[in-house]
Amino acid sequence: MPASTNSARATEFMFAVALASSVLACNPDDSHADAQADASDDGDTEPPGPTWHRDIAPLIHTHCVRCHQAGGVAPMSLDDHASAQPWAAQMLDEIAAGTMPPWGARVTERCQPDHEFRGDPTLTDAELDLLARWLAADTPAGDPATAAPLPELDSLDLADVSASFHNALPYAFEGPDDAYVCFSADLGLSEPAFLDGIQVLPDNQAIVHHVLVWVTPTEPAGHPGPWDCPPGAILDDAWLLAIWVPGASPTIFPEDVSFAVPAGAHVILSYHYHPPGPGTYTDRSGVALRWQPEPTPWLGAFAMLGLHPEPTQLVDPPFMIPAGASDHVETVAEPWPADEVSLFSIGTHMHYVGHDQRIVVQRPGQSFADADCLLHTPAWDFDWQRMYPIDRPLEQLPTLGPGDTVWMDCRYDNTLANPGVAQALSEQGLSETQDVHWGDSSLDEMCVGLVGVAWPIATPDPGP
């Protein structure tokens, strides 16, 4: 979508959002699942079953160590036998239950997509069996001389950064109330650029609930900030480029796809701060961007569908989740507002009350029962939300086009049995569940579909 042709309607439906292009885990590699070594020649016999050095270490490094290492986001390290052995039983339970590694997209009775997603860290049955046999054998370390090679982990930092920007000054405010503020910076572009990578650089992660990264063609009125940014606001003459939530990885467009940014553009960082309680808090987060001087063969953007649902989009208005409801359903229908595009990434988005979301697309002449399911996250977890990149070449991606309707089917558990509800209430000093309505704060809810779309640069702008 060339920046010069973005309309107000396009701003609402065709803007970039980013929730982690990938979870903090490596892609799976089954090669070590069947690896077994012979007894050593010096008379010291290796245990007959799997050992840490020979079999389990490669598995754990492939699937877990991205988070579970010193300084990682996880609460414990699993990168050597001494640190992993005490957690072996819980590790097996979490993996068998599908809780770890974190990956929400599932094939279910309600959703059988005809595409797969790139980067699924889920263990295979063979790997799970290997881990179970290691636990049953009392988690032996084995002989370091038989150690299998460990996979090399890719960096989670955005490579080849073109420029980085931080708030003009530290922002300070008083808790416990949430704060919504914006800062901006001049990108310094004298010519158009084609952006293909975005990484939010959080400072005080204890209070940064999320960050919206916008691009505007001219200097905003409040530059360089801070200025008030109300929840859910769509900034005038701006394109939303990315959304960061805790744990998110950089947003990276597919190869040969970029977002067009005009000369003279400014970046706007819109912050939602959510302090854990009373006190004075400060933050000076920022963003790193990567762009190219020449256009790519395809242009891309993201769409947030159902962001501000109208009564006609709700199957049963108004949007309200009663206190104590354990499986409340809200459904939002969003007619695709643009020309045909290719869908390269998709994600679900709710808050703490949500527990199950499904996204389907109903084609012209197709019944809802036969609609194409795009994504199902049946065990929604706010802390592990992300985008799921579709594993196909650009020319073979599923499409969205005129006449299509995207349906977001969202289910909510507004009881204290939902850990997210209990946490959100506790942070606000509440002990009883409340009726929940549509909104941007943590005690409000949403039912949003996130899609990354691309189109060949030779075709007309798909904006409405």
UniProtKB/TrEMBL annotation:
<keyword id="KW-1015">Disulfide bond</keyword>
<feature type="signal peptide">
    <location>
        <begin position="1"/>
        <end position="25"/>
    </location>
</feature>
<dbReference type="GO" id="GO:0016715">
    <property type="term" value="F:oxidoreductase activity, acting on paired donors, with incorporation or reduction of molecular oxygen, reduced ascorbate as one donor, and incorporation of one atom of oxygen"/>
</dbReference>
<dbReference type="InterPro" id="IPR036939">
    <property type="entry name" value="Cu2_ascorb_mOase_N_sf"/>
</dbReference>
<dbReference type="InterPro" id="IPR014784">
    <property type="entry name" value="Cu2_ascorb_mOase-like_C"/>
</dbReference>
<dbReference type="InterPro" id="IPR036909">
    <property type="entry name" value="Cyt_c-like_dom_sf"/>
</dbReference>
<dbReference type="GO" id="GO:0009055">
    <property type="term" value="F:electron transfer activity"/>
</dbReference>
<dbReference type="GO" id="GO:0005507">
    <property type="term" value="F:copper ion binding"/>
</dbReference>
<feature type="region of interest" description="Disordered">
    <location>
        <begin position="30"/>
        <end position="53"/>
    </location>
</feature>
<dbReference type="GO" id="GO:0020037">
    <property type="term" value="F:heme binding"/>
</dbReference>
<dbReference type="InterPro" id="IPR008977">
    <property type="entry name" value="PHM/PNGase_F_dom_sf"/>
</dbReference>
<keyword id="KW-0732">Signal</keyword>
<protein>
    <recommendedName>
        <fullName>Cytochrome c domain-containing protein</fullName>
    </recommendedName>
</protein>
